[in-house]
Design goal:
Chain A: Residues 7-88 form the Carrier domain. Chain A: InterPro entries: ACP-like_sf, PP-bd_ACP. The complex is a heterodimer of chains A (90) and B (244). Chain A is mainly α and 90 residues long. Chain A has a single domain (3-87), classed as Non-ribosomal Peptide Synthetase Peptidyl Carrier Protein, Chain A, CATH 1.10.1200. Chain A contains four helices and no strands. Chain A has helices spanning 3-21, 25-29, 46-60, 77-87. Chain A is globular, with a radius of gyration of 12 Å. Chain B has one domain (2-124, 185-242): Alpha/Beta hydrolase fold, catalytic domain (Rossmann fold, 3-Layer(aba) Sandwich). Chain B contains five helices and ten strands, in the order E-E-E-H-E-H-E-E-H-E-E-H-E-E-H. Chain B is of the alpha/beta class and 244 residues long. Chain B is 32% helix and 22% strand. The chains are: A mainly alpha (90), B alpha/beta (244). Chains A and B meet through helix 1 and helix 3 of A and helix 3 of B.
Chain lengths: 90, 244
Protein backbone atom coordinates (compact mmCIF):
# COMPACT_ATOMS: atom_id res chain seq x y z
CA UNK A 1 0.00 0.00 0.00
CA UNK A 2 1.30 3.45 -0.92
CA UNK A 3 1.88 6.09 1.78
CA UNK A 4 -0.78 8.24 0.08
CA UNK A 5 -3.37 5.50 0.60
CA UNK A 6 -2.54 5.16 4.29
CA UNK A 7 -2.78 8.91 4.69
CA UNK A 8 -6.20 8.95 3.00
CA UNK A 9 -7.43 6.12 5.22
CA UNK A 10 -6.16 7.87 8.34
CA UNK A 11 -7.96 11.07 7.32
CA UNK A 12 -11.15 9.09 6.73
CA UNK A 13 -10.97 7.26 10.08
CA UNK A 14 -10.35 10.59 11.85
CA UNK A 15 -13.36 12.18 10.08
CA UNK A 16 -15.59 9.20 10.90
CA UNK A 17 -14.72 9.38 14.62
CA UNK A 18 -15.36 13.16 14.56
CA UNK A 19 -18.71 12.85 12.77
CA UNK A 20 -20.11 9.78 14.56
CA UNK A 21 -18.93 10.63 18.07
CA UNK A 22 -19.50 14.37 17.70
CA UNK A 23 -15.85 15.23 18.55
CA UNK A 24 -14.69 18.82 18.17
CA UNK A 25 -12.26 19.59 15.33
CA UNK A 26 -9.54 20.09 17.96
CA UNK A 27 -10.14 16.69 19.58
CA UNK A 28 -10.29 14.96 16.22
CA UNK A 29 -7.05 16.63 15.10
CA UNK A 30 -5.36 15.58 18.35
CA UNK A 31 -5.93 11.84 17.72
CA UNK A 32 -2.50 10.18 17.51
CA UNK A 33 -1.34 6.69 16.66
CA UNK A 34 -1.29 5.70 20.34
CA UNK A 35 -4.46 7.55 21.45
CA UNK A 36 -6.59 5.04 23.37
CA UNK A 37 -10.11 4.58 21.98
CA UNK A 38 -12.45 1.84 23.23
CA UNK A 39 -12.64 1.89 27.01
CA UNK A 40 -10.83 5.24 27.23
CA UNK A 41 -12.99 7.55 25.11
CA UNK A 42 -16.38 7.99 26.86
CA UNK A 43 -18.28 8.70 23.63
CA UNK A 44 -17.17 5.40 22.10
CA UNK A 45 -19.56 2.95 23.76
CA UNK A 46 -20.54 -0.33 22.14
CA UNK A 47 -23.48 1.29 20.31
CA UNK A 48 -21.25 4.01 18.91
CA UNK A 49 -18.83 1.32 17.72
CA UNK A 50 -21.61 -0.03 15.49
CA UNK A 51 -22.04 3.44 13.95
CA UNK A 52 -18.29 3.92 13.45
CA UNK A 53 -17.93 0.56 11.69
CA UNK A 54 -20.89 1.12 9.39
CA UNK A 55 -19.73 4.63 8.50
CA UNK A 56 -16.20 3.33 7.79
CA UNK A 57 -17.69 0.70 5.46
CA UNK A 58 -19.65 3.38 3.61
CA UNK A 59 -16.79 5.84 3.21
CA UNK A 60 -14.04 3.35 2.38
CA UNK A 61 -16.20 0.98 0.33
CA UNK A 62 -15.22 -1.97 2.52
CA UNK A 63 -17.09 -4.75 4.31
CA UNK A 64 -16.34 -5.55 7.96
CA UNK A 65 -17.54 -8.92 9.28
CA UNK A 66 -18.79 -9.09 12.87
CA UNK A 67 -16.24 -11.76 13.78
CA UNK A 68 -13.43 -9.38 12.81
CA UNK A 69 -14.50 -6.84 15.42
CA UNK A 70 -12.51 -7.20 18.64
CA UNK A 71 -10.98 -5.06 21.38
CA UNK A 72 -7.59 -5.06 19.70
CA UNK A 73 -8.64 -3.26 16.50
CA UNK A 74 -10.42 -0.62 18.59
CA UNK A 75 -7.72 -0.23 21.23
CA UNK A 76 -5.95 2.77 19.69
CA UNK A 77 -6.47 5.17 16.80
CA UNK A 78 -3.43 3.63 15.07
CA UNK A 79 -4.85 0.10 15.44
CA UNK A 80 -8.15 1.17 13.87
CA UNK A 81 -6.37 2.87 10.95
CA UNK A 82 -4.24 -0.26 10.35
CA UNK A 83 -7.31 -2.49 10.47
CA UNK A 84 -9.11 -0.25 7.95
CA UNK A 85 -6.01 -0.31 5.73
CA UNK A 86 -6.02 -4.11 5.60
CA UNK A 87 -9.64 -4.03 4.42
CA UNK A 88 -9.36 -1.21 1.88
CA UNK A 89 -9.07 -2.16 -1.81
CA UNK A 90 -5.52 -1.88 -3.12
CA UNK B 1 -49.65 23.57 12.89
CA UNK B 2 -50.46 20.28 14.59
CA UNK B 3 -52.81 18.16 12.49
CA UNK B 4 -53.65 14.48 12.52
CA UNK B 5 -54.62 11.64 10.21
CA UNK B 6 -56.52 8.38 10.67
CA UNK B 7 -55.48 4.91 9.61
CA UNK B 8 -56.74 1.37 10.27
CA UNK B 9 -54.97 1.21 13.63
CA UNK B 10 -56.01 4.60 15.01
CA UNK B 11 -55.05 8.27 14.80
CA UNK B 12 -51.57 9.74 14.50
CA UNK B 13 -50.26 13.28 14.86
CA UNK B 14 -48.84 15.23 11.93
CA UNK B 15 -47.02 18.57 11.85
CA UNK B 16 -47.78 20.94 8.96
CA UNK B 17 -45.53 23.70 7.70
CA UNK B 18 -45.83 26.32 4.95
CA UNK B 19 -48.63 27.50 2.63
CA UNK B 20 -52.10 25.89 2.54
CA UNK B 21 -52.16 25.69 -1.26
CA UNK B 22 -49.74 24.57 -3.93
CA UNK B 23 -47.45 21.54 -3.97
CA UNK B 24 -46.82 19.73 -0.70
CA UNK B 25 -44.16 17.28 0.37
CA UNK B 26 -44.87 14.48 2.83
CA UNK B 27 -41.81 13.62 4.90
CA UNK B 28 -40.90 9.97 5.42
CA UNK B 29 -38.60 9.86 8.45
CA UNK B 30 -36.11 7.03 8.96
CA UNK B 31 -37.29 4.04 10.97
CA UNK B 32 -36.42 3.37 14.62
CA UNK B 33 -33.50 5.08 16.35
CA UNK B 34 -32.43 7.18 13.37
CA UNK B 35 -35.78 9.01 13.55
CA UNK B 36 -34.86 10.39 16.99
CA UNK B 37 -31.45 11.42 15.77
CA UNK B 38 -32.73 13.31 12.71
CA UNK B 39 -36.01 14.80 13.97
CA UNK B 40 -34.61 18.24 14.86
CA UNK B 41 -32.85 18.35 11.49
CA UNK B 42 -36.03 17.37 9.63
CA UNK B 43 -38.07 20.09 11.39
CA UNK B 44 -35.35 22.58 10.35
CA UNK B 45 -35.67 21.28 6.80
CA UNK B 46 -39.49 21.72 6.89
CA UNK B 47 -39.10 25.32 8.06
CA UNK B 48 -36.51 25.97 5.35
CA UNK B 49 -38.95 24.57 2.76
CA UNK B 50 -41.73 26.83 4.11
CA UNK B 51 -39.39 29.83 3.73
CA UNK B 52 -39.11 28.83 0.05
CA UNK B 53 -42.89 28.62 -0.35
CA UNK B 54 -43.05 24.81 -0.25
CA UNK B 55 -45.56 23.22 2.14
CA UNK B 56 -44.72 20.04 4.03
CA UNK B 57 -46.36 17.51 6.31
CA UNK B 58 -44.37 15.55 8.89
CA UNK B 59 -46.48 12.60 10.08
CA UNK B 60 -45.82 10.42 13.11
CA UNK B 61 -45.90 6.93 11.66
CA UNK B 62 -47.65 3.92 13.22
CA UNK B 63 -45.40 2.31 15.83
CA UNK B 64 -42.82 5.10 15.55
CA UNK B 65 -42.07 8.15 17.68
CA UNK B 66 -45.07 9.29 19.74
CA UNK B 67 -47.45 6.74 18.19
CA UNK B 68 -49.62 4.90 20.73
CA UNK B 69 -49.53 1.74 18.63
CA UNK B 70 -46.95 -0.77 19.97
CA UNK B 71 -44.17 -1.20 17.41
CA UNK B 72 -44.05 -4.98 17.91
CA UNK B 73 -47.59 -5.25 16.48
CA UNK B 74 -46.66 -3.33 13.29
CA UNK B 75 -45.78 -4.73 9.90
CA UNK B 76 -43.86 -2.74 7.30
CA UNK B 77 -47.20 -2.16 5.53
CA UNK B 78 -48.71 -0.57 8.67
CA UNK B 79 -45.84 1.91 8.85
CA UNK B 80 -45.93 2.63 5.11
CA UNK B 81 -49.71 3.00 5.28
CA UNK B 82 -49.09 5.94 7.62
CA UNK B 83 -47.42 7.83 4.76
CA UNK B 84 -50.28 6.98 2.41
CA UNK B 85 -53.02 8.02 4.87
CA UNK B 86 -51.13 11.17 5.89
CA UNK B 87 -51.13 12.32 2.25
CA UNK B 88 -54.79 11.41 1.52
CA UNK B 89 -56.47 14.73 2.42
CA UNK B 90 -54.02 16.75 0.31
CA UNK B 91 -54.41 14.31 -2.58
CA UNK B 92 -58.19 14.64 -2.42
CA UNK B 93 -57.78 18.43 -2.36
CA UNK B 94 -55.94 18.13 -5.67
CA UNK B 95 -52.55 19.34 -4.44
CA UNK B 96 -49.43 18.11 -6.21
CA UNK B 97 -47.86 15.57 -3.85
CA UNK B 98 -44.20 14.70 -3.44
CA UNK B 99 -42.36 12.61 -0.89
CA UNK B 100 -39.14 13.65 0.81
CA UNK B 101 -37.66 10.55 2.39
CA UNK B 102 -34.66 10.42 4.71
CA UNK B 103 -32.58 7.23 5.02
CA UNK B 104 -34.86 4.17 5.50
CA UNK B 105 -37.88 6.47 4.97
CA UNK B 106 -37.11 5.75 1.31
CA UNK B 107 -38.66 2.27 1.66
CA UNK B 108 -41.89 3.73 3.12
CA UNK B 109 -43.12 6.06 0.34
CA UNK B 110 -44.34 3.35 -2.04
CA UNK B 111 -48.06 3.12 -1.26
CA UNK B 112 -49.03 6.77 -1.76
CA UNK B 113 -49.72 8.46 -5.10
CA UNK B 114 -46.75 10.81 -5.34
CA UNK B 115 -45.81 12.76 -8.48
CA UNK B 116 -42.21 12.38 -7.43
CA UNK B 117 -39.98 10.97 -4.72
CA UNK B 118 -36.92 12.79 -3.39
CA UNK B 119 -34.57 10.61 -1.34
CA UNK B 120 -31.76 11.77 0.94
CA UNK B 121 -29.06 9.20 1.80
CA UNK B 122 -31.57 6.39 1.09
CA UNK B 123 -31.01 3.14 2.95
CA UNK B 124 -32.33 -0.15 1.60
CA UNK B 125 -34.12 -2.70 3.78
CA UNK B 126 -31.17 -5.14 3.75
CA UNK B 127 -28.78 -2.29 4.70
CA UNK B 128 -31.02 -1.33 7.63
CA UNK B 129 -31.28 -4.98 8.68
CA UNK B 130 -27.48 -5.23 8.70
CA UNK B 131 -27.27 -2.07 10.87
CA UNK B 132 -29.82 -3.52 13.30
CA UNK B 133 -27.89 -6.78 13.53
CA UNK B 134 -24.69 -4.86 14.29
CA UNK B 135 -26.44 -2.84 17.03
CA UNK B 136 -27.92 -6.06 18.49
CA UNK B 137 -24.49 -7.69 18.36
CA UNK B 138 -22.96 -4.67 20.15
CA UNK B 139 -25.56 -4.94 22.91
CA UNK B 140 -24.91 -8.63 23.64
CA UNK B 141 -21.12 -8.47 23.33
CA UNK B 142 -18.79 -10.70 21.37
CA UNK B 143 -19.43 -13.88 23.42
CA UNK B 144 -22.13 -15.03 21.01
CA UNK B 145 -21.87 -14.21 17.30
CA UNK B 146 -25.25 -13.68 15.65
CA UNK B 147 -25.85 -15.81 12.58
CA UNK B 148 -27.88 -15.21 9.41
CA UNK B 149 -31.16 -16.17 11.11
CA UNK B 150 -30.39 -14.01 14.14
CA UNK B 151 -33.90 -12.63 14.57
CA UNK B 152 -35.67 -15.99 14.61
CA UNK B 153 -36.00 -18.12 17.71
CA UNK B 154 -35.04 -21.43 16.15
CA UNK B 155 -35.55 -23.26 19.46
CA UNK B 156 -39.25 -22.40 19.76
CA UNK B 157 -41.76 -25.25 19.34
CA UNK B 158 -43.44 -25.58 15.96
CA UNK B 159 -46.73 -23.67 15.68
CA UNK B 160 -45.74 -21.07 18.27
CA UNK B 161 -45.77 -17.59 16.77
CA UNK B 162 -42.45 -15.79 16.44
CA UNK B 163 -41.79 -13.16 19.08
CA UNK B 164 -40.41 -9.70 18.58
CA UNK B 165 -36.72 -8.85 18.95
CA UNK B 166 -35.61 -5.97 21.16
CA UNK B 167 -32.96 -3.84 19.46
CA UNK B 168 -31.73 -0.71 21.26
CA UNK B 169 -35.06 -0.30 23.05
CA UNK B 170 -37.22 -0.96 19.96
CA UNK B 171 -39.33 -4.13 19.98
CA UNK B 172 -39.48 -5.15 16.34
CA UNK B 173 -41.55 -8.07 15.06
CA UNK B 174 -39.77 -10.84 13.21
CA UNK B 175 -42.16 -10.35 10.29
CA UNK B 176 -41.11 -6.70 9.96
CA UNK B 177 -37.44 -7.72 10.08
CA UNK B 178 -38.10 -10.37 7.43
CA UNK B 179 -39.81 -7.78 5.23
CA UNK B 180 -36.76 -5.51 5.53
CA UNK B 181 -34.58 -8.24 4.05
CA UNK B 182 -36.26 -7.72 0.66
CA UNK B 183 -37.48 -4.09 0.78
CA UNK B 184 -35.84 -1.65 -1.64
CA UNK B 185 -36.54 2.06 -2.22
CA UNK B 186 -38.65 3.22 -5.17
CA UNK B 187 -36.51 3.58 -8.31
CA UNK B 188 -36.73 5.62 -11.51
CA UNK B 189 -37.89 2.49 -13.38
CA UNK B 190 -40.88 2.22 -11.04
CA UNK B 191 -42.29 5.45 -12.52
CA UNK B 192 -42.62 9.16 -11.74
CA UNK B 193 -39.82 11.52 -10.82
CA UNK B 194 -37.11 10.19 -8.52
CA UNK B 195 -34.13 12.17 -7.27
CA UNK B 196 -31.40 10.84 -5.00
CA UNK B 197 -29.08 13.08 -2.97
CA UNK B 198 -26.27 11.72 -0.78
CA UNK B 199 -23.52 13.10 1.41
CA UNK B 200 -20.22 13.55 -0.38
CA UNK B 201 -18.66 11.01 2.01
CA UNK B 202 -21.01 8.33 0.65
CA UNK B 203 -19.55 6.53 -2.36
CA UNK B 204 -22.82 5.18 -3.71
CA UNK B 205 -24.25 6.72 -6.90
CA UNK B 206 -26.63 9.70 -6.64
CA UNK B 207 -27.97 12.59 -8.70
CA UNK B 208 -26.04 14.91 -6.41
CA UNK B 209 -23.52 14.63 -3.56
CA UNK B 210 -23.55 17.39 -0.91
CA UNK B 211 -21.28 18.30 2.04
CA UNK B 212 -22.64 17.60 5.53
CA UNK B 213 -22.55 15.30 8.55
CA UNK B 214 -24.37 11.94 8.89
CA UNK B 215 -26.56 13.09 11.82
CA UNK B 216 -28.30 9.69 11.87
CA UNK B 217 -25.14 8.07 13.26
CA UNK B 218 -24.80 10.45 16.21
CA UNK B 219 -25.77 9.03 19.60
CA UNK B 220 -26.81 12.55 20.70
CA UNK B 221 -29.35 14.24 18.38
CA UNK B 222 -27.75 17.14 16.55
CA UNK B 223 -28.60 19.56 13.75
CA UNK B 224 -27.06 21.00 10.58
CA UNK B 225 -28.95 24.15 9.44
CA UNK B 226 -26.55 24.76 6.52
CA UNK B 227 -27.28 21.26 5.16
CA UNK B 228 -31.03 21.78 5.71
CA UNK B 229 -30.90 25.04 3.70
CA UNK B 230 -28.93 23.37 0.90
CA UNK B 231 -31.38 20.44 0.72
CA UNK B 232 -34.39 22.78 0.84
CA UNK B 233 -32.98 24.66 -2.19
CA UNK B 234 -32.49 21.36 -4.00
CA UNK B 235 -36.04 20.14 -3.19
CA UNK B 236 -37.69 23.46 -4.18
CA UNK B 237 -35.81 23.57 -7.51
CA UNK B 238 -36.61 19.88 -8.20
CA UNK B 239 -40.35 20.37 -7.53
CA UNK B 240 -40.34 23.35 -9.93
CA UNK B 241 -38.66 21.16 -12.59
CA UNK B 242 -41.21 18.38 -11.98
CA UNK B 243 -44.01 20.85 -12.81
CA UNK B 244 -44.79 22.27 -9.34
Amino acid sequence: MLPDDISTIETTVRAVLRDVLGLSEARAAALRDDTLLFGAMPELDSMAVAGVLTELEERLGILIEDDEVDGEMLETFGALVRFAATKAPR
Amino acid sequence: MIDHYDWRGGREAMLRFGPETGPIVVIAMPLFEEANRTRAFVVTLCRALAARGVASALPDLPGQGESLVPLETCSIFDVAEGIERASKADWEAGRALYSVAIRSGAILDKLALFSGRWHFAPQTGPELLRDLKRVKQASIGARVLLGDLWYFDVAKPEGVEDQHVEIAGNRISTSLLTALSVYEPWRQDDGGHVRTVRLDTDRKPADRHVPGTPLWRRAEPSNDPALAALLADDIAAWIARCGG
